[in-house]
Amino acid sequence: MSKTNQNILKDRHGRMLNYLRLAVTDRCNLRCFYCMPEEGIQFTDRENLLSYEEMLRLLRITASMGVNKVRITGGEPFVRKNMVDFMHNVSRLEGIDTLNLTTNGTMSADIVPELKKMGIKSVNLSLDSLDRDRFFEITRRDLFDKVMQTLDKLLEYNIQVKINAVVMDGRNIEDLIPLVQLTKNQPINVRFIEEMPFNGTGRQYEEFKWNHKAIEQYLRDNLPEMTALPFIPTATANEFNIKGHQGKVGIIAAYTRSFCGTCNRLRVTPQGTLKTCLYDNGVFNIKDFLRAGATDDEMRKLFQEAVAGKAKDGFEAEAKRGKVFESMTSIGG
Ligand code: SAM
Ligand code: SF4
User: Fold this and answer.
1) Which domains, ranges and CATH numbers included, belong to the chain?
2) Which of 100, 146, 147, 309 is most buried, judged by most C-beta within 10 A?
């Protein structure tokens, strides 16, 4: 079904939602301390995950409502079997113009040629430290070299790399400037993300020190030649140029939420819950309706109603549900 103005996904604040972030698994081969506890995690049973067929169907339905950009995330996407075949299938769906990926890069070096074949132009690679020991302390796994291999391969294949680094008090502040230096001679964008208390343990800082303003001040103090670029609507990062550098630097105010006004995102969790905001509690479970035999038209109606009720911003969404404690891996990063 081709999209019509009637079934386009628009919320009551006038925002068109054309970007879907699909978390394909809640499992991961790392244990980043800001994302999940080291032990005792209850991962979802296979039958409670959306199947590949269900994911393709939901993407076909949302594409008919104007979703033209999809990001595959998780958990770590490549711990799920046959992920590459699934992604090829997504890349062939009518209406999907942009397919992106967020990965920790530990299992993806050999897959890069396939990513190129499926037309992926940009990959978000999570890398919080260029120091092997600190990488291990943060991720609790000794897989730094694998990530660097993926980074090199992505550059070799001319795929745009955006490095995502979570800024953590007492953990990786000394890595911020070395990470920025990666942008000097390579077309890499490095984006520093405020740490959100989505770690599955409820742990929060007493004082939230490294907010976007503190990150920017720290960078400016160390990089006087850094200049702000205009904010792009629907983007999450405030971007900066550094004179003489090929790549850019970004700061993502994920916790202080300064970018919600132009949000165009929907999220689907590995269990099939539709979230219209990172901070909401989920609107309905897509899997339950698909498995109960809902038609495409019925699904479209559900999506439309869900989207209409999208919160104005992450604060409104959080106020409705209460504090968020779950892990990023079950929300879908
Ligand atoms: N495993 C993949 C990866 O690490 O890139 C994809 C999923 S991960 C949940 C997606 C993104 O969420 C990563 O860039 C990660 O750094 C970020 N993330 C996870 N927990 C976070 C937190 N508590 N605060 C801020 N960002 C977080
Ligand atoms: Fe795994 Fe990504 Fe979470 Fe790290 S951030 S534990 S790599 S899902």
Assistant:
1) 19-331 (3.20.20.70)
2) 147
